[in-house]
Structure formats: structure tokens, C-alpha cells
Amino acid sequence: MPTSSRFLIPLLGRELAVSELANQVSVSIGAAAYRIRQMVQLGLVEQTRLQHRAGRPVAFYRAVADRFFAPLDLTPVDSLRDLFRQGLADISADVEASLEEGWLSVGRSQQWGTLLYRRPSGSVNRDFVPRSLTDGDSFWTQALSEQAPAVWTQHATLELPSDLAKQLQHELASIVTRYARQAEPLPNKRTHHIQLTLAPMIGTRSGSSSD
Fold first, then answer.
1. Does pTM surpass 0.85?
2. b (16+ CB within 10 A) / e for 120-153
3. pLDDT band of 21, cuts 50, 70, 90
4. Residue (of 63, 31, 37) closest to 48 by Cα position
């Protein structure tokens, strides 16, 4: 997390003493007090009250607003990368746990297991597949059968012009919106994770594949 926002975020929408802020961001009280003074001087934080006690009173601070907007051209690239990474990490942890349980459920009910084999290139691959796949059945025939849980993981690289990539973006968004608007009560409802990612690739890799 960027240093500048690391000290401001805990003060959004609530007040904290310097010692409480220090504890939350895992720094010394002196370091937290220094950052508080900086943010007060910049007009980002204000003192809200003094709590009187024996000895020196305890000052409490709070951000002057519950929301801050930083224009892109004023935001360091590293800060943006940290923001994206943190957001993806928070989402991925939940999605990965759900995927793991989902695929294990598929494996238990459909007699799946680990298949070890050597590719023509010489590398050894390890896949989680149904037993029948070793006899030539399609992976997706098994995974998409009515008896298997609704679990799906796929990665693909596609060669698309910008207009088709935009069309794909709209179609994916439309599908998610359509299912998210299921307002009527349905029996046996369960919350499902869905994570979609679409972005132009960086670098010179080309070609298309999926696994």
C-alpha cells in the first residue's frame, strides 16, 4: 500500500488517537505522530477532540472528508499498481477458495483425479481430470454435465481487433447483469463467485490458445 494513503485510510470516516493509528499501520507512535502533523499541514486531517486524563491529554484525529479523489496524473504509477494488486488479491483469495471447493466437489462426484503425462514437447504435465478423459472423453463434456457442480475456470488469449474486443466486453457485462437481476425468489439459491478479466496483452506475444 502506498505510504501516503497508508496513514490516511484508517482516518477515513472515523477518529483515532495517534497510538491507535500507530498500532493499525504497525509503526512507532513517533512515526505516526510525524505523519499526522504532515497531513494536518496539508489540510487532509484535523484534530477532532482532546480526551483529558491524568498527565497529557490524548488528541484524536480524523480525515477532513470521508472521500478523496486523486487525479491520475498526480498519482504515482507504483501507487496505482499497488491499488490494482491489492484489489485483485482481495478478490482472488475468495475466488480461489471457492474454486478449490467447487472442483473438489466435481472430483468427488464424477471420479476425477490427477493425470500425469508427457507432452510431445517433452515437458511433463499434471491435470485434474475425470477418469473417463483418459479414454478420450471431452473435458468439458464432463465438467458441463448436469450432474457436475457449476464450476468453471478457463484462460484464453484471443487475437481480436479493438471493435470485437469491445463487443466481447459488452457481451460479458450483459451476461453478468442479466443474472444479477434475478429478483424473484428462487429455490436452492447459493452465492456464486464470478471473476472476469479482459485486457490487451503487454508485449509482443501473439497467437491464441486456451486451457
1. no
2. eeeeeeeeebbeebeeeeeeeebbeeeebbebee
3. very high
4. 63
